[in-house]
Amino acid sequence: MESRVEDIVIVGAGIAGLATSLGLHSLGIRSLVLESSNDLRVTGFALTIWTNGWKALDTLGIGNILQQEHIQLHGNVTTSLLTGQQTSTTALATAM
Ligand SMILES: Cc1cc2nc3c(=O)[nH]c(=O)nc-3n(C[C@H](O)[C@H](O)[C@H](O)COP(=O)(O)OP(=O)(O)OC[C@H]3O[C@@H](n4cnc5c(N)ncnc54)[C@H](O)[C@@H]3O)c2cc1C
């Protein structure tokens, strides 16, 4: 069996592993990402990214690409299904 020596091995190709690998790559540091799953998981219908998440994506150099595909939330309102009355409103920051 062929053996390879890697300086950095990242276990798990979730967003944390891939972001770490991309960050290292931008610094010119190679890494090997190991993933146990054979397939991409395609569950869910939306991904909510908060301001600090966008800052992290900007730092990785991919925020601009993703922002072209996103809808910015300006706030949310919760409503009681029993009374139909608004129970709370939250204004979210508009500047990123
Ligand atoms: C239903 C749902 C909705 C969510 N919605 C949002 C959202 O809208 N916004 C948001 O910011 N967050 C959301 N989250 C949370 C977000 O998915 C997690 O915080 C994020 O995926 C964590 O990333 P991670 O890379 O740390 O872990 P994971 O995404 O869990 O990735 C870990 C990876 O490691 C692999 N792995 C595990 N063990 C091994 C091993 N021994 N060897 C090799 N590979 C291995 C796994 O297969 C997996 O691919 C949601 C979570 C769920 C469950």
Short description:
Keywords: Monooxygenase, Oxidoreductase. The protein has 96 residues and is an alpha+beta fold.
What features would you describe in this structure?
- The protein is α+β, with helices and mostly antiparallel strands and 96 residues long.
- The chain has one domain.
- 27% of the residues lie in helices and 18% in strands.
- The strands form 2 sheets. A two-stranded parallel sheet has the order 1-2. It has a two-stranded antiparallel ribbon with strand order 3-4.
- The N and C termini lie far apart (50 Å).
- The mean pLDDT is 89.
- Biggest sheet architecture: 2 strands, parallel
- How far the N terminus sits from the C terminus, by CA atoms, comes to 50 Å
Secondary structure: number of strands? 4
Q: What oligomeric arrangement do these chains adopt?
A: single chain
Ligands in the structure? flavin-adenine dinucleotide
In spatial order, strands of the major sheet run 1-2
Q: Provide the domain count.
A: 1
Shape: elongated
Could you state the order of secondary-structure elements as H and E?
Answer: EHEHHEE
Mean pLDDT: 89
Overall helicity: 25-40%
The percent range for strand residues is: 15-25%
Structural class: alpha+beta
Gyration radius, to the nearest Å?
Answer: 19 Å
Number of discrete helical segments: 3
Uncertain residue segments: none
